[in-house]
Write a structure and sequence with these properties.
This protein is mainly alpha-helical. It has 2 domains: about 90 residues, Orthogonal Bundle (Rna Polymerase Sigma Factor, Chain: A); about 120 residues, Arc Repressor Mutant, subunit A (Orthogonal Bundle). About 70% of the residues lie in helices and about 0% in strands. The protein contains 12 helices and no strands. The longest helix has 23 residues. It is globular. Pfam families: Sigma70_r2, Sigma70_r4_2, zf-HC2.
Length: about 250
């Protein structure tokens, strides 16, 4: 749901007021955006109580960020939604680690347990990453990974050699992995943090130019928030989660 321009401008003023110490201004932001936050929370978790807890924790987290001089300067709802997804993701990971049960059968090596909320969020990240790819990369990925076509079969259709198709598919897969990791990076408004955040996925995948690596290292040497995000993305990459692969569909997601 889009936000009228006038309300967006008002949000910017309210954000400035919160940073200046006006807690009532944050109450207005809460009233404006709680319905949208609840709708997103209910789309991510099935238990209404969990959804309410998720919304409450998200608003508290964003408020703490603003009072500390961080967080969004503009686009409050976009930042709020991104934070809510991250809170949901971390809660799912935490709950999965702390789950107590007498029934250990589903944890047998032959039957790995998949947390529904975490799996749903990962699918969302993967779909967003897929949509962000260039059209040509999406096309070759869909045909090779979902439809199962070989480079030799695709070569005549794309006007390329089989080897060129294989190279294109490799670049597309790498681009998808990088963008998938990038979905786990929260939006940051300070210009240098935004610049760094946009390159964390590339850093983890070893795809940064030397000059960018030097600049990023310099930023990470003092920015604890960006270092924390880098640690999270690095963990995601080390866990070797494959981006969600669509199955049993005739057309790619739009």
């Amino acid at each position: 749901m889009s936000i009228p321009a006038g309300e967006t401008d008002a949000d910017t003023e309210l954000l400035a007021a919160v940073r200046a110490g006006d807690t009532a201004a944050y109450g207005i932001l809460y009233q404006r955006h709680r319905s949208a936050a609840r709708a997103l929370a209910h789309a991510l978790v099935t238990d209404p109580a969990d959804a309410d807890d998720l919304v409450a924790e998200t608003f508290a987290k964003v408020f703490a960020m603003l009072r500390a001089g961080r967080g969004p300067l503009v686009a409050f709802r976009a930042y709020l939604n991104t934070t809510l997804r991250h809170v949901c993701y971390h809660r799912a990971r935490r709950d999965r680690r702390l789950e107590f049960t007498d029934d250990l059968t589903r944890y047998d090596e032959g039957e790995p347990f998949l947390d529904p909320a975490l799996d749903k969020l990962e699918r969302t990240y993967a779909a967003q990453a897929f949509r962000a790819l260039p059209d040509r990369w999406r096309d070759v990925l869909w045909r090779t990974e979902v439809e199962g076509a070989s480079p030799a079969e695709l070569a005549p259709q794309l006007g390329l050699t089989p080897n060129a198709v294989a190279v294109l598919a490799h670049r597309a897969r790498e681009g998808l992995r990088r963008l998938y990791l990038q979905q786990h990076v929260a939006v940051a408004d300070p210009p240098e943090c935004r610049w760094a955040g946009e390159r964390l996925g590339g850093r983890v995948r070893g795809r940064l130019a030397p000059r960018e690596s030097v600049r990023l290292d310099s930023h990470l040497s003092w920015c604890t928030d960006c270092r924390a995000q880098l640690d999270e993305v690095t963990e995601m990459n080390q866990r070797r989660h494959r981006p969600y692969r669509q199955r049993n569909r005739a057309t790619p997601p739009g």
